[in-house]
Write a structure and sequence with these properties.
By secondary structure, this protein is an alpha/beta fold. 28% of the residues lie in helices and 21% in strands. The longest helix has 16 residues, at 237-252. The structure holds adenosine-5'-triphosphate (ATP) and magnesium ion.
Length: 303
């Protein structure tokens, strides 16, 4: 997890220490604070095309996520709920991981800890080698803004803002210049298939369209990591499939994804499925890398 002496040239880690030293948050995405020299050590498909890709291609050798003996207790009156009880795993760059398990087993709690929305009661969460469990709230906010994209079941778009303005919001918070924000927001809306809807407000969009705006918003600052909690939970099967396809494309384009879901079809699209029960990981299942999504095949072997 600490990458010391591994020859990674401090790539990424020093650069995100206070979240402010990354040169251009809205700039070319593949340099996660790395230098030209260090970036050239790693193959990146981004370099093949000449133009910057929409989604980041992190070049660090550090895991995207490292979780060690992670715990989260909730105190409720006199009693304690052990929502996450000593969970350990890594997610490497480019992985597409689904977290599944019965209601109440701690999936959302775990995702919120990884996304620096919540803090652990014990153990460590590191995102791209940076220990996020001990950050101050201010550090956490900055870190989250620039390194993690979060998609929720209920979209949480700003109702008074247009699709484009919603996508621009995290860029404004990250102080990306105004002109750049508009261009990038348009580019992202095109990517999610909503180029023609940029001026619509959330109430003028279907559920699936709203979720696609929310996904574009999550990608606004080129996060290293996309997290999603039940992203198809509010959608009908057909609309859910559009989101599943979009996630597949994002992952194929280099985005690291961790998605919590009850949706078997969504879980089936991931390369790896982490099964949870009662706050613990009971199974960590790798699949054969499947470029193409099985169309209406049998349910996964998870049982
Ligand atoms: N803020 C909170 N305060 C107290 N207990 C909580 C809190 N949030 C979650 N819990 C409890 O922690 C446990 C795990 O909750 P969590 O929301 O992580 O489950 P989940 O796996 O996401 O479930 P679902 O599939 O229904 O969304 C549950 O027993 C829940 O009641
Ligand atoms: Mg949940």
């Amino acid at each position: 997890m600490t990458g010391e002496g591994s020859g990674t040239r401090d790539e990424g880690r020093g650069a995100v220490v206070d979240g402010s030293s990354r040169s251009t948050p809205g700039g070319p995405p593949q340099h996660h604070g790395g230098t030209e020299a260090s970036a050239s050590h790693h193959h990146s498909r981004a370099r093949d095309t000449g133009s910057p890709p929409l989604v980041p291609r992190p070049s660090s050798l550090l895991p995207a996520v490292s979780v060690r003996d992670l715990r989260r207790d909730y105190r409720m009156g006199g009693e304690t709920v052990h929502a996450v009880r000593g969970v350990t795993f890594d997610v490497v760059d480019g992985e597409y991981v689904a977290v599944v398990g019965p209601s109440g087993c701690g999936k959302s709690t775990l995702l919120n800890l990884v996304g620096v929305i919540d803090r652990p009661s014990g153990g460590v969460v590191a995102v791209r080698g940076r220990d996020v469990s001990t950050m101050t709230d201010k550090e956490a906010t900055l870190f989250r803004l620039r390194n993690v994209g979060f998609v929720f079941q209920r979209f949480y778009l700003m109702p008074t803002l247009s699709a484009r303005e919603n996508v621009e919001l995290p860029m404004a918070e990250a102080k990306v210049p105004r002109a750049e924000r508009g261009a990038r927001a348009r580019e992202l809306l095109e990517y999610v298939g909503l180029g023609a809807r940029e001026r619509h407000r959330p109430s003028q969009l279907s559920g699936g369209e709203q979720q696609r705006v929310a996904i574009a918003r999550a990608l606004a600052n080129r996060p290293a990591l996309l997290l999603a909690d039940e992203p198809t939970g509010e959608l009908d099967a057909r609309t859910g499939e559009e989101i599943i396809r979009l996630f597949g494309r994002l992952n194929a384009d280099g985005t690291t994804i961790v998605v919590v879901t009850h949706d078997e079809e969504l879980a089936r699209a991931a390369q790896r499925v982490i099964h949870m029960r009662d706050g613990e990981i009971t199974r960590d299942e790798w699949r054969v890398a499947s470029g193409e999504r099985p169309a209406g095949g049998p349910p996964p072997a998870s049982g």
